[in-house]
Amino acid sequence: MATGNYEILRLLGRGGMAEVFLVKATGGRYAGRELALKRLLPALREDEEAVRLFTAEAELSRHLHHPNIVDVLDVGHDADDIFIVMDFIDGRDVAQILKRCRAKKVPWPIDFALYLARALLDALDYAHHAKGPTGKALNIVHCDVSPSNFFVSRTGTLVLGDFGVARSFIEVGPDQVMGKPFYLSPEAISGRLDATIDLWAVGVTLYELLTLHRPFVGKTSREVFEAIRAARYAPVRELRPEAPPVVEGLIARAFDLDPAMRFTTAREFADELAPLYDERVGTPLAISAMVRGLFGTSD
Q1: pLDDT in 10s for each residue of the chain, 299 residues
Q2: Residues 1/26, Cβ–Cβ less than 8 Å
Q3: DSSP-based helix, strand, coil % in the chain, nearest 5
Q4: What CA–CA distance (Å, rounded) separates 72 from 57?
Q5: With b meaning 16 or more CB within 10 Å and e meaning fewer, what string describes 104-115?
Q6: Of residues 74, 87, 125, 144, which has the active-site annotation?
Q7: Is 144 an annotated catalytic residue?
């Protein structure tokens, strides 16, 4: 099966709206290269809202070029498909890594956790300030920051992907907020949208990296939301005693019930993290080596 100039090799994954394939470019500037192709599910090709959202993702993503964001190389249509072609990240998403750490009872190193969070914040800082081709600010909010959307490649590349529910105030508007319940901020639950909801989600992701547990839990979405609104979670050092108090303090600030007391920009959050990890330990290559160790060379 082929889509345009791309031969589909195998399915990589499928979600509620799209499926992702490993493909090989058969022509054009990427001829011979293995890439990832994301296309709208066949059942949704006649759904106007699904097409609109998928098209919006394509338009937003093609403007984003940063070392910590999956690079979109092509966007296209043919008789049967709407698709986005991206760099293929040969590695694991952070959700898979955390699951394996829990299964093997291996704690994720604190320096690695801080470095990953810093890289994620660098990606968001860029996305939040990105401009379109006319120079006008896009005001992008990712809306779905979580471990499953952040990837570690076998060679040490750390990238944020899946802008499928991202919002631009200019092109989409703030009427609907989407995302995974465990990573939503109190404001996002209430339907208020701005870049700070991504920062809250980074706090949740960092907590999970440090402790291997989600901070806000419950048997139902309602219970999870109640925990979020009350900022009810186990302190980091209760689950990870060796975590420095300053790191626990940053998590507490990220989850403060008063939005004015939290980090207001991704850059501010990143700058607070930067001096807290050892750059000789928390490196992309060291992180990718640990991931290979967790999963093995053939897994």
Answers
A1: 446 688 889 998 887 778 899 999 998 888 999 999 988 888 888 888 888 778 777 777 778 899 999 988 888 776 667 788 999 998 899 999 999 999 999 999 999 999 999 999 999 999 999 988 888 888 888 888 999 989 998 888 899 987 655 554 433 333 444 557 899 999 988 888 889 999 999 999 999 999 999 999 999 989 999 999 999 999 999 999 999 999 999 999 999 999 999 999 999 999 999 999 988 888 888 998 999 999 876 55
A2: no
A3: 40, 20, 40
A4: 10
A5: eeebbbbbbbbb
A6: 144
A7: yes
Domains in the chain, ordered, with CATH? Answer: 2-87 (3.30.200.20), 91-295 (1.10.510.10)
What are the residues facing 34 on neighbouring strands? 24
Residues in the chain: 299
DSSP label at 261? G
Host H or E run for residue 84: strand 82-87
Give the tokens for residue 236: 């980091």
- What is the torsional sign of CA 284, 290, 274, 119? positive
Please name the residues in contact with 222: beta carbons below 8 A apart, sequence gap of 6 or more.
Answer: none
Distance CA 289, CA 163 (A): 27
Half-sphere exposure of 241 (CA within 13 A, CB side): 0
